[in-house]
Each structure stands twice: as structure tokens, then as C-alpha cells.
Design goal:
alpha+beta; Aminopeptidase; seven-stranded mixed beta sheet; 4 helices; about 35% strand; globular
Length: about 180
Amino acid sequence: MTDDNAVTIRVLAPEESHKHISVLSDILIDCVEGGASVGFMAPLSRDRADAFWTAVADGVAAGQRTVLIAEDAETDSVVGTVQLVFGQPENQPHRADVAKMLVHRRARRRGIAASLMRSAERAALAAGKTLLVLDAVTGGDAERLYLSLGWTKVGVIPGYALFPDGRPCATTYCYKRLA
């Protein structure tokens, strides 16, 4: 899929997922440095980021995840990513989790996150998933984005996670039915 901003969203093929570890680590490190609560504390080392993306690539190879990337034609670089996590309990074959929706700070405010999410929804449907679940920092940009894309807010857990600098933050859980 290509949007109006010369950005192409595509599913990262299993055989190429290990080749993108470095650039995906760059995006993750940038997001953590920018204060995003995405499961990591600052400072996030290159080794830790690479280890995370190596595990993700292994999950892609095993069919437990799908990684989508946003490629910017102007800069010839990957500027965003989102994951679908399929490894659910056997009584939830219809469900996937959305994880690590990340856009590099230099590429924000161009609709890339919304394009990634719409593409993730299509990829989930193509994989036979009809229910998606995610969480986001309460009151943050991601929560506003998800709600604007038709996600349903389930509830808020105060003090659920930490920002990279150690401050606590509340987390909002959301779901979306796809069919």
C-alpha cells in the first residue's frame, strides 16, 4: 500500500526479517529516546534493541508474528513498523495482538501511523483474524490515533507501565472487531 506521502507499507517477508534488524533497532531506540513507553527503559542500548528485533525475526520465521514496515521513498529508508502477534492460546485462534507500533520522530505527523494500522488490520484479516487487541499510554498520541481509527476503549489501568525515564503511566486497553 502507498499513501499520499510517498510511503509504502508492506509486510516484511520472513526471509528478509533478519536483514532489517539494524534499521528497526534505530527506530526503536529513537522512540525510546523520544519518551515512548514501548516496553524499554532509557537509555536503550543497541545490543538490547538488536536482541529484541532478533527475537521478533525468529517469531516471524516461526509464523508467530507478522511485521509490517513503512518505507519512505524520498529518503529510501524504513521509518515505521507495527507487529501482529499471532501466538495466542488455542481457544483464541481468531485473535491477534497489535504490538510495537513505532514511527521514527523525523517521519511523524504524516499519517504513517494510521497507514500502518490500517495495513495491519488488512493483514490480520488476510490471516483469518477477526479481533485485534492493543494497549497504549492513556492520553497519548497513540491512544488518540487508535480511537480515531474506530478502536473501542475497554478500560484504563493506572500506573501499569513506566515511561523510559521511570515515571509511571496509565495504560488504556482497546479492541477492534474486523469482521
